[in-house]
Amino acid sequence: MKRAATLQLTTPSDREIVMTRVFDAPRKLVFDAHTKPELVKRWLLGPPGWSMPVCEIDLRVGGRFRYVWRRDNDGTQMGMGGVYREIVAPERIVNTEKFDEAWYPGEAVDTLVLVEQGGKTTLTQTMLCESRAARDAVLKSGMEKGVAASYDRLAELLASTKR
Prior knowledge:
By secondary structure, this protein is α+β, with helices and mostly antiparallel strands. It has one domain (8-161): Alpha-D-Glucose-1,6-Bisphosphate, Chain A, domain 4 (2-Layer Sandwich), CATH 3.30.530.20. The chain has four helices and eight strands; from the N terminus they run ββααββββββαα. It has an eight-stranded antiparallel sheet. The mean pLDDT is 94.
């Protein structure tokens, strides 16, 4: 059995978290999986047991997005949203990010970069936090496990839709 790709997480500065993973899929498909609500709702779920009842995406500079997740066993909800600052399809998206009930200080700026080579796409997601304290709070939250689980789901989704 082929070993699954893994999430690489680094902290290149006091305010940044960089997550990288290679997907066995064309860049356009990976981009679509990040920008089409019907696809986002299938993979961007964090740890098992969560669903996404709200996924709104107005994919244009100045457009907004809104996600609401629900823990299925008790109905707990978590929402977040932001504004798109830059969109270069299918290679780059820059947006703000802020949770409804902030569990880290301030607003973050996320930059998604997709690079395709040989039919595989390297995804690099950089989160720029307002402060080191905010970055550290994100790191301590366990988000790495949730991102890894979501990216595993994304890999499965891409494998089922790419051919």
